[in-house]
Structures are given as C-alpha cells and as structure tokens.
Design brief:
This protein is of the alpha+beta class. Helices cover 31% and strands 24% of the residues. It contains 5 helices and 6 strands; from the N terminus they run ααβαββαβββα. The relative contact order is 0.20. InterPro entries: PspAB-like.
C-alpha cells in the first residue's frame, strides 16, 4: 500500500483464508459454554448465481464429491435459490458432526475457487440453536464467514419478529468468540442473511 492509498483512505483488500473455517468446532464449544447454543448440523455456502456450462459442471462435481462421502448420514447436499436471487449449497450433518460440516463448507468454497468462481463466493454459515425451557428450539443463530473479508460475524434473527435481529445477542457472541474466531470488526459488514438455508 502506497502513501497515496493511505492519504485517500484506501485499504488493501483482505485475502480470503478458508482455513479460518476450521476454527468453528472450537468456537462451538465456547459458544455453548457462554450462551447455550449448540450446532444444528446444517450449513450452507452462498454465492452469486452464475449461469453457464462451466458453473454447472463445477456444481455437479462439488455435489458428487460431498454426496459420495461415506460418512454422510443426513440428506444429500442441495442447491437452493433464495428470494434475492442468490444460490445456496446446503449441507446437512448430525449436530455432533460439526467438523464434517466444516469440511463440506471448505470443500465447496475450495472447488469454486479452483474453478475460477471465487469472485462469486459471498459467505458460508453454520447454524446453531438454543433449547427453550419446554425442550423446543427457542433461538437460532448463525456464524457467518465472509469470504471476501476472511472473517466471521454472528447473525441472530429474533423469533417471530419478521426481519428483526437481536443485536445484543450478536454483540455478546462477538465478545465470547473473540479468542476463537477472526471476528469482522466493521459492524456495517454484518449483513443480515434473512431466510438463509441452514438457519
């Protein structure tokens, strides 16, 4: 970065670091101890929808790779499109298989990168939930990895409140996980992922 960049306030872009995803299992232990949230076993990778034969081939290869996993116990990996036009590759594992879910998320991101679709990658998320007093799910939370920033942030939608989020819980989770994950310092980049598969 040169002097002109510093004077004009430009910053060097952060390089994606997919290995940050492997910190999720240890962060999950901290999250359970600090806030009572446990993994759901669901996660997803979000990317800008791309049309064309090269992308379709990459998607088929990724899906075949993940579906062929001999340890997979849940439903097959699915490709979904949300209301905003983005694509999500959704993976299911059992709640105690977060390490395998992380492997799935890493494999999808890596395959997209290798095949030239890195610029289309937006984020990955792992879902968490908290049990209520009656045994049902009372709260949901996602730890979202921003591909282009190489950092995480928590996203906590308020149950039954439409498109409103629990900012206090998100800040609590941020503080609890600061030692486990590279947390995104710019709160304006904590984008809501309303209706995201896996949440």
């Amino acid at each position: 970065m040169g002097l002109l960049d510093i004077l004009l306030g430009r910053t060097k872009p952060v390089a994606p670091d997919l290995d940050q995803l492997f910190a999720l299992p240890s962060a999950a232990v901290t999250l359970q101890a600090a806030a009572g949230f446990t993994p759901t076993g669901q996660g997803a990778v979000c990317f800008a929808t791309v049309e064309g034969g090269a992308f379709e081939q990459t998607h088929r290869e990724v899906q075949a790779l993940l579906d062929a996993d001999s340890e997979r116990t849940g439903p097959p990996v699915r490709l979904l499109r949300d209301d905003y036009g983005y694509s999500w590759l959704l993976s299911h594992r059992t709640p105690d298989e977060l390490h395998l879910l992380v492997n799935d998320l890493h494999a999808v991101n890596s395959a997209m990168e290798v095949n030239g679709f890195g610029p289309q990658l937006l984020c990955s998320l792992a879902g968490f939930e908290k049990q209520g007093p009656g045994g049902g799910v009372s709260r949901r939370l996602a730890l979202v990895y921003l591909y282009k920033r190489g950092s995480f942030y928590p996203f906590a939608p308020l149950p039954g409140a439409g498109q409103r989020r629990d900012n206090a819980l998100e800040l609590q989770v941020k503080a609890a996980l600061a030692g486990d994950l590279r947390i995104e310092p710019d709160l304006s980049r904590w984008f809501p992922v309303w209706g995201a598969p896996g949440l």
